[in-house]
Design goal:
about 160 residues; alpha/beta; four-stranded mixed β-sheet; 4 helices; globular
């Protein structure tokens, strides 16, 4: 398949992608796989502002947004079963940024990385690293959202 042939060259030079090649092998065999993580949440101190930021950021990605309660907002991409969410902390304390924590969003092209980075900045995010090649096999851009959570958009 295209997926496997695309990653064959990458896996020769980059051990991170060896698991992707193994994953594609299992998928081709029709095996059901468990996921390490099916959703990612970030804390927010202003749910309305955070919702507006992520609604704007994801508007071109065919996402569905929903709020199951007054403390959270979720987004899912059409055809995907993973979720992204922002929460006001359950314990009532202020949300804080995890030092060394980062949430990654896989894009389909370098142009999409450039575009969503620019969109995030226009929506009030802070630039943490302009779009560019970080390694031979990684093109990414970094921002901090309105609450200071670090995001990476990459391909």
């Amino acid at each position: 398949s295209f997926f496997i042939s695309y990653f064959k060259n990458i896996t020769k030079n980059n051990s991170i992608y060896k698991n992707i090649n193994l994953y594609s092998y299992w998928v081709e065999k029709g095996e059901k796989l468990k996921k390490i993580a099916a959703y990612k949440t970030l804390g927010t101190n202003n749910l309305d502002a955070s919702k507006a930021f992520y609604d704007g950021l994801f508007e071109d990605l065919e996402t569905l947004s929903f709020s199951p309660n007054e403390r959270s907002q979720f987004w899912v991409i059409k055809g995907d079963d993973s979720m992204f969410a922002v929460f006001k902390p359950y314990d009532g304390e202020m949300a804080s940024v995890g030092n060394g924590s980062m949430t990654g969003f896989l894009m389909n092209s370098e142009q999409e990385v450039d575009d969503i980075h620019a969109k995030a900045i226009s929506l009030g995010a802070t630039d943490e690293g302009a779009p560019g090649r970080r390694t031979e096999n990684f093109y990414g851009a970094y921002v901090r959202d309105l609450d200071g959570n670090k995001l990476v958009f990459y391909v």
